[in-house]
Structure formats: structure tokens, C-alpha cells
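Working notes for the structural subgroup meeting. M.R. asked for a predicted model of this chain before we commit to crystallization trials. I am recording the input and output together here so anyone reviewing the notebook later can reproduce the run.

Input as submitted:
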Amino acid sequence: MFKSQKFFRFKKKSIRVIKIMKKDYKAYLGGSIIMLILISAIFAPLIAPADPYKTNVTRRLEGPSLQNLLGTDSLGRDILSRLIYAARPAVLVSFGGIIISVIIGIILGLLAAYVGGILESIILFIFDVIRAFPPIILILVLLSIIGPSLLSVIVILGVTIMPRYGRVVRAETLSEKEEDFVEAARSLGADNSRIIFKHILPNIFASVLVLSGMDMASMIMWEAGLSFLGLGLQPPLSSWGVMLQESYQYIQTAPLMILWPALAIMLTMLGFSTFAESLRVALNPKLNQEV
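Returned structure, recorded in C-alpha cell form:
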């Protein structure tokens, strides 16, 4: 009976959030861009009009044409195909980094708030140490030690922004564990794991979800920037940052070559940011009255 009531409340809240977001143009705009990027990443071999790694130096730096809709790069490769394939590392880095940050942040944040004591002091010290370094310096140092690769970028970005989630979860948990429903569950004999995962975590996850949506855009920017500096994906692999790196030296002779990956990065960041903002408003009872 309790589980059915809990499922009914969850379903009712989900329907309310969806109704609010359906009235917000930001949800449609952001959702459409995100779906386009995800479809491009998943079905890249089916969508791409040409092999993104096939070179043809006789057709290098050509403008848009019927055969190459966005033109060709310095090695004669089809730019549209490379843009489509470049969505894959962007999606992997953004979702992979966020998943690592959320999982570690939730675990450490819950332990710090619920257990307290020396363990909380140690966890907060770890957060402070990571946040003491400027993110760009910390990321560059770790990448120079570990070496540039897609996996290392995902792990390092996830660890770098993890303290944000840990502190949010800790603050929310400190508030939630003093609520009456937690005391009631404890008085009925519920153990700590049940209280944390059945009562506290579901109530704080909305804040984590909104924060992760906003950080998706930052992940896209970080991946492109690190690849541009040569610390992310390495040529000839296709990445928007790699494409920027390869095209900036031709900005005078072939300006469109650098325009397309820049637009892809901008639109992807816009999509995640607008959708996260719409979700934030829908999940906030005070803000969604204005929608």
C-alpha cells in the first residue's frame, strides 16, 4: 500500500513537471537541440553523408557544394560528416563526466551529512583541496600527467566538478534529515540505509538533476577547449575542438571551416542550458507559478 501511494505521488509530480515544461518554449528549444545531438551521436554512421576520415587533397578547402554541403577541410574531408561524428565524444564526455560527478558527489555528500564527525571533516577537506585549485590549472596538470585521451578527459572533468555536487547534496541532506517524516521513519525502526535511499535521496535528487543539466553545457565547452589545446581527443579523430584546432590557421582563406564547429558548440551549449533552466523552473514550486 505504501509503495503504491509513493508511486502515485511520483507519477503525479512527474505529470505536473511535464505540464509546466510544455508551456515553456525553452523546453522545446533545448529538448530539440539535445535530441538532434543525441541522434547524430547514436546514428552517425547512418546519417553522415561521407567517411569523415577519408582524405582527398585535390578538393581541400572547398566551399559548400551539392557533394559536400558544408565544404571540405584542409585534407579534403567532408566537414558535415566530421561534425556529425564529433557529436559522439561531446556526448560521451558530457554524460560520462556528469555521471562520475553525480555518483561520487552523492555518496560523499550523504556520508558527510548523515554520519558527520571526523568523516565529514575529511570529506569537506577533500572538497576544499579540489576547489582550491583553479579548474583549468588542475585539469591541465592532471592531463599532462595521465596523458590525453577521451577516458582521461571524462574522469578528470568528473572529479574536478564533483565537489559542487557533494556540497549541494550535503546541504540538502542536513535539511532533510531533520524533517518530521525522517524522524517518523526512524521511530518505526527504519535503518539508516533505508532512510537515506528511500526518504532523503528522492527529495534531494531534483536539485542534483538541475545542476547536472546546467553542467552539461560546461562539459561540452571543456571537451572542445581541451581538444583544441591538444589535450583531449587527438587527430585524426573527429571532435569539435580538434576541428577548431585544424581550421583556425585557415581563418583568412576558408572562414567557413572554423564557423561550423563553433556553431555546433554554441548550439549544443544553448540546448543544454535552456533545457536545464526550464527544468529548474518546473521543479521549483515558487518559480513555476510564473510560467
